[in-house]
Amino acid sequence: MNSDSDLQIAGDILEVPHLLQPPREHPATVAEFVGLARSIAADRSRWEHLVRFDATSRWYHRLHTGPGYEVWLLSWVPGQGSGLHDHGPSSGVLTVLEGALTERTDRGSRALESGAQRVFAPGYVHEVVNDSLEPAVSLHIYYPGLTEMPMRPRAEQRAAGATPNARCAVAEVS
């Protein structure tokens, strides 16, 4: 045998079913929730026909639920925003499907173009707005499912400085 290693695997590991983990039916890790968001984003036939734009209020639609999580589809006409808020005990993945949105936090603003993803932990305080001249569509996954979305007065955030987000993790996914 021509090998530079003394380690050899006998047989085919795929022939030993008890060593393989069964595929999960539902996501359970941050990476799997990000993957779910990407797969839904890529399958426009799953969401595009549902989108509505409402000039008087933000439109939203619960697209899917699974054990311990929810998937929401939101539309934003120019000028619409969420207001400053957090998501209570829920973590989340925000994915921009069409258009562009701006995320504002106590640390500044971030432009989110189509395809951008943000992952956040419970208690993360932000505001999402459509500052552009075109409508936008976004996908939001919350785990556990969204049970509260406390609105925050701007004066409260300024008085607290960086504290609201100092304890919370957030990541931009590329």
Shape: globular
Please count the helical segments.
3
End-to-end separation in angstroms reads 44 Å
Rg over alpha carbons:
20 Å
> Uncertain spans, ≥5 residues at pLDDT below 50?
159-168
**Strand segment count:** 9
What composes the largest sheet? 6 strands, antiparallel
Portion in beta strands = 25-35%
The strand order across the widest sheet is: 1-2-8-3-6-9
Structural class: alpha+beta
Estimate the mean pLDDT confidence.
Answer: 85
| Quaternary | single chain
Order of helix and strand elements from N to C terminus: HEEEEEEEEHHE
Helix fraction?
A: 10-25%
SSE diagram, text form:
Layout: H1 30-42, E1 59-66, E2 69-76, E3 91-98, E4 100-105, E5 108-113, E6 117-120, E7 127-129, E8 136-143, H2 154-160, H3 163-166, E9 170-173
Antiparallel strand pairs: 1-2, 2-8, 3-6, 3-8, 4-5, 4-7, 6-9
Overview of this structure, please?
With 174 residues, this protein is α+β, with helices and mostly antiparallel strands. The protein has helices at 30-42, 154-160, 163-166; strands spanning 59-66, 69-76, 91-98, 100-105, 108-113, 117-120, 127-129, 136-143, 170-173. Helices cover 14% and strands 32% of the residues. Strand 1 (59-66) and strand 2 form a beta hairpin. The longest helix has 13 residues, at 30-42. Mean pLDDT is 85; it is low at 159-168.
Task: Give a short synopsis of this structure.
The chain is an alpha+beta fold and 174 residues long.
Looking at this protein, list some descriptive labels:
alpha+beta; 6-stranded antiparallel beta sheet
